[in-house]
Specification:
Elements: H1 2-21, H2 24-41, E1 44-50, E2 52-53, E3 56-57, H3 59-72, E4 80-83, E5 92-95, E6 100-105, E7 108-118, E8 130-139, H4 143-164, E9 168-174, E10 177-183, H5 196-210, H6 213-219, E11 224-230, H7 237-248, E12 251-254, H8 263-271, E13 277-281, H9 284-287, E14 298-301, E15 312-315, H10 337-345, E16 355-361, H11 369-372, E17 379-382, H12 388-399, H13 410-423, H14 427-436, H15 441-458, H16 461-482, E18 485-487, E19 490-492, H17 497-505
Parallel strand pairs: 9-12, 11-16, 11-17, 12-13, 13-16
Antiparallel strand pairs: 1-8, 2-3, 4-5, 6-7, 7-8, 9-10, 14-15, 18-19
Catalytic activity: ATP + H2O = ADP + phosphate + H(+)
GO molecular function: ATP binding; ATP hydrolysis activity
Biased composition (Polar residues): 298-307
Length: 506
Amino acid sequence: MKELWTTIASLMGVFVFAKTLIPPELQSAVHKLIHLLFSYFSPYRYYEITEIDGVNTNELYHAVQLYLSSSASSATLNRLSLTRGLNSSTITFGLANNARLSDVFNGVSVVWEHIVAPRQSSSGRRFPEEKRSFTLRINRRDKRFIINDYLDFISRKADEIKRNNKDRLLYINSRGWWESVPFKHPSTFETLAMDPAMKTEIKTDLRDFADGQAFYKRTGRAWKRGYLLYGPPGTGKSSMIAAIANFLEYDIYDLELSEVKANSELRKLLMKTTTKSIIVIEDIDCSINLTNRKKPTVSKQRTSGSTDGDLDFKSSPVEPAAFADSESNEGSTSVTLSGLLNFTDGIWSCCGSERIFVFTTNHIEKLDQALLRSGRMDKHIFMSYCSFPALKILLKNYLGCDADAGDIVPEVLEGLEAEIDGAEMTPADIAEVLIKNRRDNSRALTELLAAMKGRSETKSPVNLLCRRLAAEEVAEEKRALNSPKEVDGAAIGGGADLEYTKEWKD
């Protein structure tokens, strides 16, 4: 036995010494040759399905992940990964890192392996820290019988799992990547405080979009649609987005433009979104400068006192935002208007299908007209102050009072109807009054009517005129105090200098 180990050690020493004499290029060629020979004579075929394909997310990877998660719960494996999202009651089973799972399809056995390895640092490109993929092993003789049918079956099964899963996902962008949490917003079109006719119109438009694949293909248009929600704060723009997501059963991608460093990163984020999704940019007027697209102009003038070759360059006043739309400014750390326009209606916006873009703003007048045109923002929805039909929905939601069924005293209901338009209260304002008094319906209605009357009186034309005149009078007094006074040819400042000027004249 001792002689055997001695012989093995000697052979290993000779092998290590010989390896040092072989150039690295030759070693690599030998390894490749051995791998090719092994693959040629191996009875199996291997297929790798990576999480990321270039800059896109691989939808097949997520389909396999969902399919194997449903199979892993009933499989007899020693290691399983268990996950439960934030605010979610569902526990998800999955393959642990580098674990294997056998499956059978049409009588053919296959093996799945979940490969997770640290990702090597890439040059300037943002990827997850780990490289994840699934490896499918199929017997060589069975490949032509099941490979296409099996993968199609997995995709259909994954779609079925998604439909049965009522939880929506809310994605947020961070460090150039999307991170998700369960989306549990309870808002629906039934609970949304809005005119019923407007809600019916929006639901019809959404349904036509979701069922319009053949229409968009026939007309040569990208399967996407843009919505602009505008109006005062508190009118339910965010609730509208949640209602759309719950109505269509779409995921939401909440895009924070301040986290995006360049137009190229914005395009990559767009390509990483999935189908059946809503891409949201809230308060678009506050995200980036979208009003000034003029190119800066610089006029060169020679001063009279300059010598030959010395030029005094004078430039017209230009806002810093004027440079924001220049694509040549590669070092900029903000998204430009042209980048946002291409994001919503450029060539890159067609890299995907069945997606809805939703922008919200409190000040539509601040937005560039190029962003508002059809093709980018196809449908403009004005989220107005609470109307009487919307008020009845709020009363039913918060107090359980059905105005149409006679649950409210007619005199009170008539008073609310008479005051609602002049009060200009948002659904959020009315909801706050109802929430505070939700245990006493009578008190809630009384306080709501009083609040509406107070708002109406404050906003009456006479009061508005009086307040404007008072404001102008106060402004005039301030200008008089701050304006300089001329005494014996000398300009004396206003304000605190007035007492000193009076004493000096006396």
